[in-house]
Amino acid sequence: MNEAQDVQSVGIHFPPGIPDKVTAEVSRIAQMFMVDGESLRKITDHFVKELERGLSDQDSDISMNVTWATKYPTGYETGQYLTVDMGGTNLRVCNVVLTDEKGGYEITQSKFKLPKGLKTGTADELWAYIADRVADFLRDHNLDQGDEKLPLAFTFSYPITQDKIRHGVLQRWTKGFDIEGVEGHDVVAQLEAAFEERDVGVRIVALVNDTTGTLIASAYKDPEIKIGSIFGTGCNSAYMEKCGRVPKIADYKLPGDQNVAINTEYGAFDNSHKALPRCQFDLEVDRTSPRPGQQTYEKMVAGLYVGEIARLVLIHLHDTVGFLEGADLTRLRRLNSMESSCVSKMEEDGADTGSVMSETKAILSEQFGIEPTLQELRVCCLLGEIVCTRAARLYACGIAAICKKEGLKKGRVGVDGSTFEKLFRFKSRAAAALREILEWPDDEEDLVTFVQAEDGSGIGAALIAALSSEG
Ligand code: BGC
Q1: What is the whole-number distance in angstroms between the Cα of residue 365 and the centre of ligand 1?
Q2: Which of 97-101, 327-331, 416-420 has the lowest mean pLDDT?
Q3: pLDDT above 70 covers what percent of the chain?
Q4: Residues 288, 328: one domain?
Q5: Residue 250 lies in a domain
Q6: Where is the Hexokinase C-terminal domain (predicted)?
């Protein structure tokens, strides 16, 4: 059996002792989450059209942001750069020295957990927090150079409109952020104002998306890398395009064969609801999110949402067919209380048919106060498999769409993000789906493969700063 296809192709095997009404409802839900090869190909074809529309001036759900990162690194970039990465959970500050040796670098870093409340606080609190952590970092690492300001590359992984590399207007918040006063404004100017107020000795020289950083950092090590992708809290990809194929920047009169990295922002794919098979649980995830109607694709696949989808399915089964009968679901009913890693663990735990599912039992007991029977644990495991399989298969559509649009027959995709590493069988499932979509012959090895990316927001951002200072 192809392990990547599991519930998709071989159907569900319920353990004995599960009431019929529960098995019937789980089977119905499995059907809802099933996306066969034909559907994947249709979704991808629509995806390709949207990528193309995004490069033109036509309306598209996908904004295809021009990043102004216009070169691949040669390995001979040099210089010292501070980098700041404002991720969904952490803030990472690095001092990156690109050394004279080909491909060489040294890196020192500090990570800070973003305080609770910052994601929905005020703009002043956000910029002050970042500026203070950078000031701490300079002090702790003796990097303050008096009047000479250190160049800083800022990885800000949200959709932004850029007309140059050190500028970017936030189009909209994603990944559960909801901070007033930033959308529609240049985030570089806002952060620089906070640096100035505190007299922090840095100047922002590049504004970078995590996908672009991943593309450049990965290509630095491996010239076969054609796409930089993130599969973590959010989901998105970047690739190198020729300026001549980006009608919306025709006014800049750039040479047609000049490269420019495009941050697709394809998490917003299908916001107009024409292609993706959304089910009742997807609608509910969207309804309770801070930005309903946005990031439709991301909400069906990315790490921030996989746990939430599984949580809603569990509650639905309890409320409609008495699954987990008698359990107190108060804690499970809390919005976003289940992390994607938890769903993945459930599935992994049950993958061995002889397992007593002790990890899943511990998670449900400790985090939610639920004490399921072994049979119920097996159903939880099946649900994990159903939700995670769909996520991996739909994730492959975005990558396949870039390959089809670019006529890319062979290459590697550098993928970063906590969920990519942690989600059980994610990589093999995504690879199997890519094969189905791109219809490679059975006797052919995978032509486009997923590999673990290099450090995009540290090394990648520093490289982009170095490359853009070359003019
Ligand atoms: C953001 C992208 C980012 C992705 C992965 C999405 O929510 O809009 O800019 O690349 O998450 O972090």
Answers
A1: 33
A2: 416-420
A3: 97
A4: yes
A5: no
A6: 226-467
Q: Which of 210, 282, 286, 455 is catalytic?
A: 210
Question: CA 471 to CA 207: how far, in whole Å?
Answer: 16
Strand, coil or helix: what is 398?
Answer: helix
Q: Confirm whether 157 is a catalytic residue.
A: yes
- Minimum CA distance residue for ligand 1 atom 5: 234
Q: Are residues 39 and 118 in the same domain?
A: no
56 domain residue, yes or no:
yes
Name the residue of 119, 161, 230, 418 whose CB sits within 8 Å of the most ligand 1 atoms, as the mutation to test its pocket.
230
The residue segments making up the domain with residue 105 are 69-219+455-469
- Strands (DSSP E) contained in 290-422 are 411-416
Would 312 be classed as within a structural domain? yes
Query: Ligand 1 pocket: which of 62, 175, 457 to mutate (most atoms <8 Å of CB)?
Result: 175
- Report, as an integer, the average pLDDT of 124-151: 93
The answer to whether 172 is a known catalytic residue is yes
Query: Does residue 276 surpass a pLDDT of 70?
Result: yes
Same domain, 11 and 80: no
By the 8 A CB rule, do 460 and 215 touch? yes
At 378, which CATH number?
3.40.367.20
- Gap from CA of 156 to ligand 1 centroid (Å): 9
207 shares its domain with 329: no
Helix axes 37-55, 374-406, angle to 10 degrees: 50
Say if 239 falls within a structural domain. Answer: no
Q: Is the pLDDT of residue 348 over 70?
A: yes
* Ligand 1 residue neighbourhood (C-beta within 6 Å): 157-159, 174-175, 209-211, 230, 232, 234, 236, 265, 267, 298
